[in-house]
Amino acid sequence: MPSGRAQAPKRKRPRRIPTGPWNLACCCRSARTRLRRPEVFPLHGPPAVLGALRAACGEISIADDRFDLKRILRRISDWKNRRISPEQAMREVASAPTRGNRADDYAILAAQAYGRYEETLRAAGAVDFDDLLLLPVRLLEEDEEVRHDLWRRWHYLMIDEYQDTNPVQLDLARLLAGPRRNLCVVGDDDQAIYAFRGADVNNILEFERHFPGARVIKLEQNYRSTRRILAAANAVIAGNARRHAKQLHTENPIGAPIDLWEHEDEEAEAEAIANEIATRRLTQKRKWGDFAILYRTNTQSRPLEEALRARNMPYRVVGGTAFFDRKEVADALAYLRAVAFPKDEIAIRRIINYPPRGIGRATVLKIAELAQAKGIGFADALLAVGPEDVGAAAHRAIVGFLEMLEDERQKLSDAEAEAAAGPPGIGLPPIARWAEAFLRRTGIEEEIRSDRRNQRSADFRVDNIRDVVGSIARYERRVWGQLGRVDGASNGGGDVVAASSNGRRSLREALMTRGDGEFATIALGRGETHTVPDATALSSDGTGVTPAAIAPGSLDEGWTPPRLVDALARLALSDLEDRADDGREDDACIALMTLHSAKGLEFEDVFIVGLEEEILPHARSIEAAGDPENPGHGDPLAEERRLFYVGITRARSRLTLSYCRARRKHGGLVPRLPSRYLQDIPADLLNVRSPGTRLSPEESAELRKNFFAQMKAMLAGDEQDAGAQARSG
Q1: I need a labelling partner for 426 at 20 to 30 A (CA). Which of 154, 244, 433, 529 fits?
Q2: Can you tell me the distance from the alpha carbon of 486 to that of 498, in angstroms, rounded to the nearest whole number?
Q3: Do residues 300 and 332 share a domain?
Q4: Does residue 187 form part of some domain?
Q5: How would you list the strands of the sheet with 686-689, edge to edge?
Q6: Burial, 89: exposed, middle or buried (Cβ in 10 Å; 0-12, 13-18, 19+)?
Q7: pTM for the whole thing?
Q8: What distance, in Å, lies between the first and last C-alpha atoms of the chain?
Q9: CA distance 435 to 239
Q10: By C-alpha distance, which of 582, 327, 580, 336 is closest to 472?
Q11: Cβ distance 359 to 353 under 8 Å?
Q12: CATH code of the domain containing 55
């Protein structure tokens, strides 16, 4: 009997569009299996990676207290992002001309440490963030079956923020796009500001060469800023010769002139800005959150914070020390990793004597030497070491340490069994409850509180450890929440059948009631959905969904009950809330942040401070621009100009630019020059004045004229001095 609805031909409905960061999207189970990686492996973030590098440097006799390990790590990361192996890096450094400067020293040190660093990661069965791109690219290049499987599943590929991609991501885009070449990217080469992270602006500048026949659509209308602000931005970025030509325009009002301030020093600058914000808030009825103060480096925030605090003006520093970079957080995670991954040398070495338990540095070196001599890992050497190797007292401490970890592994196993039995109830879920007790047992909290000089700081650091436990608890609840409700699976009358408290049984019942061969959409919490066939995706025992049916958290992995290893992986890949924000709403605080942190944000009223040579552009960029062996991607001075452009375009209605005649350095005042980028802004857009003054139009015009004349003279004199020094050298 025909139904009342049209019998349209059935079409294959698309599955949920998979979205996510490159590294998360590519870290899948098939990659692990085919690359001969263990089922679970530690993913190391910055603190643990620095620990691996510190261990590598120690083993090749590089004193880590004499050199900036982060700088060495940046060079290694740059090589990995350019797919340069340790052997190739050694050849690159060996063939480069030596100028006897600090940059040469770091290149040599990085090349020496690179190979041992990779060995340290492999010995721990670990990967860093760069590997999450390198390993899938290698897999796709070498395994035709995997390539064709992905091409069959993914017909269209969209990439956002394409200007921030690196060479490895370009290779990955080519491999994923495949023969269909259904690739759409969105990006702005004028906002390419992450070369220091390995991004290569050439990826977007040469997109049409990489993908011939591509269609380019320019989006030039701006809906944010006033005409004056856009005119200034267009003028500044036009100074970059190599770019996709664009001219931003808007239908917004012309807006107020752009203020350009000169100050005696950074303290006068901070005082003037604080006073001006207080005035504008009252006279223009602004909220605190309408204001942002942007600067090139984090060190510039100190006088600004002091000036705001002195007036009780609420502010927040955005993008300060990352949560996972805090020592106490890194220590807590290392303890958890040491239990979850018994062979994780990096984690074990970090916490083996913290809090102090009598296993000093000399003992650790002896264990490392034993491991190298026997050709075994550090964790195995701990088990093999005897009192004759390290002394009786140190051996007792090692045995106690290992017994604690083994005892906690058994407790974790019990907690994970409880976590798999059903959704958590009131209070901490099982794994988080275990983590809380274990971290208390380690003595980290007591060690932190033993420093009685700053109890407030101790409380804050202990709270950070508790936040780690809270993150694990949220992960456990989220895993069960992903099986918590069903959308699209009906009882025949169109009613949604909700899952019961145990989640999985009613999910099967709900799907079984559909029975029409169509696809049901399973809602997975936080707005995520996955589409599965009605009964074919259910396990044979009738208790749940098979791995093929639901893939929470990744692209092709099945649902699994909560596990510590998965919680740690999610923590490593996630961005926890910024602890610099004390919980107040954004509207209640003035925002202080670097120009890099400001990308993607907008504010009604923006101050850009420190617009001076050697700050913007930064001294390192000026130096690198004259270095023929600069390892970065593109022109560093062009990138600094793009950074200024990004700052200008954060402003909606009001923009203030500021520089100082002098800054304090090593106890004295050092003269400064205005940034070269300021002279690119047309004079008729600027209101050049000292803060707090109100000039007539004639006075402002004269001041503008004098300012530009003085700045050109200073820059010309500076160039002549540099030329004279070069000739004399």
Answers
A1: 529
A2: 6
A3: no
A4: no
A5: 315-317, 590-594, 291-295, 603-608, 651-660, 258-263, 686-689
A6: buried
A7: 0.68
A8: 97
A9: 55
A10: 336
A11: yes
A12: 1.10.10
CA 424 to the chain's CA centroid: 31
Average pLDDT over residues 113-119: 88
Q: β-strand 291-295 against 590-594: which pairing, if any?
A: parallel
Instruction: Give me the DSSP letters along 90-133.
Output: HHHHHHSPP--SHHHHHHHHHHHHHHHHHHHHHHTT-B-TTHHH
Residue 650: DSSP 8-state: T
Final residue before a domain boundary, out of 95, 128, 161:
128
**Residues 281, 311: contact at Cβ < 8 Å?**
no
Q: Identify the residue whose tokens are 């899952």.
A: 499
Q: Same domain for 458 and 384?
A: yes
DSSP 190: G
- Cα gap 21→18, rounded to integer Å: 10
Domain boundary among 419, 441, 465: 465
pLDDT tens by residue, 546-563? 333 333 343 334 578 999
Residues 6 or more apart whose CB falls under 8 angstroms from that of 602 comprise: 224, 650, 651, 652
3-state SS, residue 253:
coil
Check whether 148 has a pLDDT greater than 90.
Answer: yes
Question: Across all residues in the chain, what is the average pLDDT?
Answer: 79
- pLDDT tens for 342-377 read 999 889 999 999 999 999 989 998 998 899 889 888
Quote the CA–CA distance of 647 and 660 in Å, as a whole number: 18
Identify the bridge partners of residue 592 per DSSP, sorted by sequence position.
Answer: 293, 317
Give the domain extent around 383.
325-465
Task: Tell me the pLDDT tens digit for each residue of 466-483.
Answer: 888 988 988 898 888 765
Six token digits for residue 432: 């988080």
Q: What is the pLDDT of residues 19-45, one digit of tens each?
A: 555 544 454 545 555 555 555 556 666
Q: For residue 12, give the DSSP letter.
A: P
Bridge partners, 522 (sequence order): 530
Backbone angles phi, psi at 310, to 5 degrees: -60, -25
Q: Do 610 and 704 fall into the same domain?
A: yes
Q: Is the pLDDT of residue 520 over 50?
A: no
